[in-house]
């Protein structure tokens, strides 16, 4: 059950967010090795955000997964997600942080229970 939570200061009005969500879902699924049916993507725009003292386009994200994360996977996800943000939202790769959380199934509720 990977979840990618992305926040950006970019205004998403008029942006094809469906293509971003679709591409991010596919990417997270492939890189982590989990079915797309279990991948959740949250995308928030127009979030007040400063990076390096400026309010130029920037983003912050967190990936939470029950298993599947490791240094190699994290590096691949960081590259892939930053590429999506750069091509779709013009957020430069150097203005994006991504944090990874590998968690236990008992730490996540789903379908009225836990994993």
TrEMBL record:
InterPro entries linked to this entry: Macrophage_inhib_fac, Tautomerase/MIF_sf
SUPFAM superfamilies: Tautomerase/MIF (SSF55331)
Origin superkingdom: Eukaryota
Pfam families cross-referenced by the UniProt entry: MIF
Gene3D superfamilies per UniProt: Macrophage Migration Inhibitory Factor
Homology family: Belongs to the MIF family.
Protein name: Macrophage migration inhibitory factor homolog
